[in-house]
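Suppose a colleague, Dr. K., hands you the sequence of a protein chain of 254 amino acids and asks what its three-dimensional shape might be. Before reaching for any lab equipment, you can write down a predicted structure in token form. Begin with the sequence itself:
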Amino acid sequence: MIGTKGDITVELKGKAALVTGGSRGIGAAVVRRLAREGADIAFTYTASDEAAEDLVRELGSAGTRMLKIKADSRDPAALREAVEQTARELGRLDILVNSAGVFYAGPIEDATPEEIDDTLAIHTRAVFVASQAALAHMGAGGSIVSIGSCFAQRVPYGGVTLYAMSKSALIGFTKGLAREVGERGITVNIVDPGSTDTDMNPADGPTAEAELELMAIRRYARPEEIAAAVGFLASPQSRFITGASLAVDGGVTA
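The predicted structure, expressed as tokens, is then:
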């Protein structure tokens, strides 16, 4: 690290980040990680005002500027406004982390039009819209990181076709955008988690045993381990990495 004081670093000191879906799970872990690296943070959330406020109190007390924004990633206008509010209130926008997500599972015959629309709106359209808006504020050293999935590279069982389709779309988006903005000094990457212990997929859930069988490292990831990969890709240490997918999946795709 560039400098440390206890477990607080200054790797991202003076930077401002927006994390979508940042009040829980992997998103909240990313918010904590970037704050620990010294960045000022805005995050969006849709449901729990209490969880969002708790996160602001937790991190704001350490001196990080925190901004919670209630905005549904399904709504392009709300997402664009969240980007503008971040740049306006934090004074800049250097890092965008697209973390909002949903998970519908089951046979393809059972997928409803509403589930299809919801998944694609949050996993693909929202990533495009937020990135498009954020680029208007980013200069050299800017970074866009999206949370993908190991299912974008390998689908070892059925019932996740819709989810896998939506996450694999991020590969093309990331590679294409990396080409577009590379000369501006902006990097664009994906972190592809495997099974991670969150409320969406708990380590003691009904599918845990089957998921562990797929791994070389037979345990669920901690959200903090996914966030560490995001923190690296957002940091100055990774400036020659762009258009890449970083698997943090315990060897599922090995």
